[in-house]
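Chapter summary example: a protein plus DLL.
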Amino acid sequence: MKKYFQQDIETMPVEKIKEMQEEKLVKQVKYVYENNAYYRKLMDEKGLTPDDVKSLDDLAKLPFLTKNDLREAYPYGLLSRPLKDCVRIQSTSGTTGRRVVAFYTQHDIDIWEECCARAIVAAGGSKDDVVQVCYGYGLFTGGPGLHGGSHKLGSLTLPMSSGNTERQIQFMRDLNTTILCCTPSYAAYIGEKLKSMGLTTDDIHLKAGIFGAEPWTEEMRKNIQQSLGIKAYDIYGLTEISGPGVSFECEEQTGMHINEDHFLAEIIDPDTGEVLPEGTEGELVFTSLDKEAFPLLRYRTRDLCVLTRKQCSCGRTHIKMCKPKGRSDDMKVIRGVNVFPSQIETVLLKEGYTPNYQILLDRINNEDTFDINVELSEEQFKKIHAKGGDDSEEKKSLTAAMVAMLGIRPKLHLLAPNSIVRSEGKAVRMIDKRKLHD
Ligand code: DLL
């Protein structure tokens, strides 16, 4: 079976990749300068012309782009090609502030779909597979991206979109789906639903899943792999840079290979903007190398992660990024301590709880309150019920594990099964009401 979608590129010697990147970077900078007034102005303000960028080392001279720039330039300010050459628009969900819209020419769509096809092959997929796409379709890039990748590869594509979970499982069984694509939180829910329908992994034919669009932990990976009887692979991407497939996991499952022939990655200190050496945690910054409609130079993702170029047993040579810990803005400062939802997920799953939880923050009498609703499994619920509803023992040991991980004490609420709303797309893990009082 084919191990790579584009072997020559995916296993290209690192020196060659760098040469290719350098050549493309010089061209992309010139292209952006000539075709985009917004970025040209940013370069002019720094006294830079395209001639100042001759090598990869010159990248650090260029100005950053941030989400604020994208909002300011909405909708056409960062478009670098006449609209008549564009064939598609996708958009972010816009939960915070104005939506971001991204434009694509046919060339841009081709690149994007190739990247997604590489991800499907890396997860063991081929044209013999049935790929069920349960990411949302529409403006969100998840559905269209994996759908396009599956088509490119020649797999049989099931464009389900998210929701109607029983029907998802029925199709999965009737049509012998082998690869599932959705958010990890939805995959966990599908696993749960399978069990509640009285079915086991023997009743389905899945072998792999390609899950992304939100942070998820190694513990969550184990949970999904077990409940669906598959290998679960991570996939990363963002609308601004194209969508899913900016990077993807291979059989080693130890981080995601960035498609370096199209996207140049840097890690910077989020406070100073200084470029950090490989292996250091910081904010991920991307520069597109060959986009036409919506090329972005030095775009700050706000995702925190680490890059490594350690040799990978899969034979791919492209640099790897670790699972992003979350966006720098997912991190909450609670009573002065930095907390990521992923830390809470790690503790819950390690301690044998379900991945269904919600974090509630508020401020009462000028003090932060920090509550976590945790849903019990049927077995845990029965056990507590048999003790007359006394959950003090469970709460005590879970609180101790949380304090050990976080350094602060949350107030825990252990809830009956099915009391937390399930997510079909990106899960909302944190409700922060403190802003309302500011
Ligand atoms: O979430 C694109 C996507 C769709 C990726 C399907 C993977 C699968 P946006 O809606 O623009 O695009 O959100 C991008 O989601 O900056 C990260 O913060 C987060 N994110 C995406 N993938 C991962 C992942 C899509 N595998 C934002 N792990 C990004 C952690 C992820 N966070």
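Key point: The mean pLDDT is 95.
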